[in-house]
Protein: Enoyl reductase (ER) domain-containing protein
Amino acid sequence: MGEEEVSNKQIILKDYVHGFPKESDFLLKTSSTIKLKLPYDSHDAVLVKNLYLSCDPYMLNRMREADASYPTPFTPGSPINGYGVSRVVDSSHTSFSKGDLIWGITGWEEYSLITDTSLLFKIQDADLPLSYYTGLLGMPGMTAYAGFYEVCSPKKGETVFVSAASGAVGQLVGQFAKLMGCYVVGSAGSKDKVDLLINKFGFDAAFNYKEEEDLNAALKRYFPDGIDIYFENVGGKMLDAVLLNMRLRGRIAVCGMISQYNLEEHEGVSNLFCLVIKRIRMEGFVVPDYYHLYPKFLELVLPHIRDGKLTYVEDIAQGLESGPAALVGLFSGRNVGKQVVAVAHE
Amino acid sequence: MGEEEVSNKQIILKDYVHGFPKESDFLLKTSSTIKLKLPYDSHDAVLVKNLYLSCDPYMLNRMREADASYPTPFTPGSPINGYGVSRVVDSSHTSFSKGDLIWGITGWEEYSLITDTSLLFKIQDADLPLSYYTGLLGMPGMTAYAGFYEVCSPKKGETVFVSAASGAVGQLVGQFAKLMGCYVVGSAGSKDKVDLLINKFGFDAAFNYKEEEDLNAALKRYFPDGIDIYFENVGGKMLDAVLLNMRLRGRIAVCGMISQYNLEEHEGVSNLFCLVIKRIRMEGFVVPDYYHLYPKFLELVLPHIRDGKLTYVEDIAQGLESGPAALVGLFSGRNVGKQVVAVAHE
Structure:
């Protein structure tokens, strides 16, 4: 065995997406096969069985034709890829051995041959749910960590606002802020999510932005003395309202702008003059620039997870075939907590 | 003498300004008088004769009713104030003596009694034209210095774009960039100004933004490999075009947004997502936060001015009565170089 070919179901992007993505932009291809052994002349590659796949907001930009250097678009007609958790089936790379559990960039398919191993991490702590390595212990966890600690330079007692706060990144930023001794408020798009923020993740307050006619007034209600740190996940109108409510020398970490990803024309942000009068620093960041901090990150979060001080909510869709619906649902806010697709239970 | 009262002409703001300011928003009051001696019970105050007054873009925001903490609005019915160069006539402050030359915040009038001395600096080097202390050697000079060196962290060989580049701040930023070994391009609003940038201030290139239908295309022409540093003076459409042309890890120092000051509704900026994909830091700053660096600044610029490596162009209006027209002209770009009002030649 191993020499024989096995079936390898794949999720294919049919063509570049315009506007809002639909399930029908993808197809489940059942006719592919793969050998469960690397070719003899393979170098620095791994062959993996995929266990969990991660649905992340940045993937929408990859469904579009490139208009910027980052991130690289998907290839229509081919399986899409993204972060996932996998078991190594065969390896010609000295850092990975058959049987290892890894997380990093893999294909949306049952088995993947990975030749670019630069974004693969070996999982050392397998006592926690493996799906956590698509979120809390993976890319979104590192995003929250880098954006909050490295970009925002938070101080005890500061006020923190997080948008899209119940998502994979936001729920962690809020908990990091509480660990730091900050006052933290989150916004989300449903009552369930708001409840989760307050009752599960320990945010000091939270509100449903869809029920606020005047975002500026809502922010003034929760931050009568203004906002020191804004963890920006949504862009558009929310950013405009936040700018009016920032405090002197506030910091805005721009992680994403999910409210804008579906729009052909981005909403204009009109209150940027606040950057001057309030001496605000607004900084975009992407997580790959910070992966050298991953060991330091684990050192911080693992003890807190084990003793229950950091909690985490996932929304797990079962089976590769449920992938397109799960991924598309992210952009209408259908998921509650981190959206994962379980491909295989070992 | 000194005990008697002398005439003290003043420039008064009639009422808060809406939209574009006009000369008629101000009046020259000729009926005021002032004693040329401080009261006996005066503490920590100076009485000065004003020599030069500075016209600066931020002053438009002071003509409006406050909608933010900075800057403090003018008081309708009273003389306006701003940066200027003055001779001390009388002093009850230990740091200033009769006869000293100073620069800092003073009134738009012939003589001023200054009780808030926190923004007064003694002029030590009076061999250079005194009007320079309203620009090159004063607040605009420190603004260029702080914004370029402190906020932008420039490196040799980087590409720099400056908008409103022939103004008091812009002309210096361009020259600092050249001293640093950067490639620098400026935009301005007339052929004369563009000529000045290239022939007088040594910019590598310059363009008239009013003659460019497509600012994005213009920037691509001058920066085929993108912009590392943008010194932002204008906001609006220019900022949107710049965002598309920034390089990875670029920096934007937000000094002002003069294109927006006259608009009741600010233009929306739509390309902020570039902050994320290009990891851009965009930071607002105001110069009072950096005045502790003034001695270090003088150490840098004085030798360069004396040996002609830093040049400077002023547009001097004669007489206090020419003040309103000079100030208002700033917002239609009428001035070429730093706009100053000469109140008295000693």
Summary: DSSP finds ten helices and 17 strands in chain A. Residues 139-288 of chain A form a domain with the Rossmann fold fold (CATH 3.40.50.720). The first strand of chain A starts at residue 5 and ends at 7. Chain A has a mean pLDDT of 93.
